[in-house]
Amino acid sequence: MFPIIDNIGLKKGIRSERPMAVASVASQMAITASPISVAVVSLVSIIAASHGIVQAYGILEILAVSIPASLAGIVIAALWSLRRGKDLDKDEEFQEKLKDPKQREFIYGGLETLLDQVLPKQAYWAT
Fold it and tell me: Which terminus of the chain is more exposed, N or C, with fewer CB under 10 A?
């Protein structure tokens, strides 16, 4: 996934670390907030309730907290990431690297992308 994010970022002139950082955090938050993960916590809560612990939380209570908290965290991380580093066209160090033909070829060369390509309808079918 990260090579795809990097490729699209370079093609659009966006620093690759901006979307990559948020993508890695968002994937972990999705795992944490998923009902499957919450189901394990709920099972522990049910077992605790059966052993006499009074305050046990169910899956709905846990999801009511974990999903909005995860979504808010991802939005905040994405907004923060927008301000991370200079844009590539304003980054002196990056522009200096592009002046060297070898570096430019290393950064941009050989990147094949499907960005802006129109594919046949069958290409979107799950196989």
Answer: C
Angstrom distance (rounded) from CA 116 to CA 12: 11
Instruction: Count structural domains, the chain.
Output: 1
- Each of the 127 residues of the chain gets a pLDDT tens digit; together they read 777 888 788 888 888 888 888 888 888 888 877 777 777 777 777 777 777 776 666 677 777 888 898 899 999 999 998 888 888 888 888 889 889 988 888 877 765 666 677 888 888 887 6
